[in-house]
Amino acid sequence: MIKGGAEWLHMDVMDGHFVPNITMGAPILTCVHKGIPDIFMDCHMMVAQPEKWVNDIADAGGALYCFHIEATSDPLSLITAIHARNMKAGVAISPDTPSNAITDEIGEKADMLLVMTVYPGRGGQKFLERCVPKVAELRSRFPEKDIEVDGGVGPKTIDVCADAGSNVIVAGTAIFNAPNAEEVIQLLKDTVNTAQAKLAVK
Ligand SMILES: O=C(CO)[C@H](O)[C@H](O)COP(=O)(O)O
């Protein structure tokens, strides 16, 4: 994942809700944190009850706790709980969730907004371009927030994401399958940085 020039590590945390039979949680994060203590762990909580795991993820070294708005009835209290554990709070929307599910109050209180460009669960899916207008809509309401895109993002799809205003990019397949991963990472970073510079002068 790329945010400006800094390196983040996007960790998918799952309880079997979004993808049956796949679980991955705090014990794995703890191991990663031990191995690379300085990495910023952005934890994407693809779980049914995001309220349940805030303490576990904070104890495991999570730096950002991103929950799905579809999975909670009280996003504002959840953001308060995440901040109380000194983590940044992210709010994710799945492809079928409109961007106005993130109200002005929620968006202002969150640190990052995540627009999923695939259905949550698996890497290697096709990028859903119909989700991109949601990035632009959120960017117009929240000019200062981090806006992340996740799913099918790579050299062929980065332009529309960056032009819409996304500044945090999750890329799995595009990097892991590339003959030269560093080149792809650099291209993604350069595209985002160029688009952000253009948006800043508008
Ligand atoms: O959260 C995810 C799916 O839920 C993955 O992080 C995401 O899809 C990245 O993988 P790829 O770049 O291969 O699409």
TrEMBL record:
Pfam families: Ribul_P_3_epim
TM spans (from-to): none
Job of this protein: Catalyzes the reversible epimerization of D-ribulose 5-phosphate to D-xylulose 5-phosphate.
The reaction(s) this protein catalyses: D-ribulose 5-phosphate = D-xylulose 5-phosphate
UniProt protein name: Ribulose-phosphate 3-epimerase
Subunit structure: Homodimer.
Obligatory cofactor(s): Zn(2+); Mn(2+); Fe(2+)
Pathway: Carbohydrate degradation; pentose phosphate pathway; D-xylulose 5-phosphate from D-ribulose 5-phosphate (non-oxidative stage): step 1/1
Enzyme Commission (EC) number: 5.1.3.1
Family: Belongs to the ribulose-phosphate 3-epimerase family.
Keyword presence, Acetylation: no
Superkingdom of the organism of origin: Eukaryota
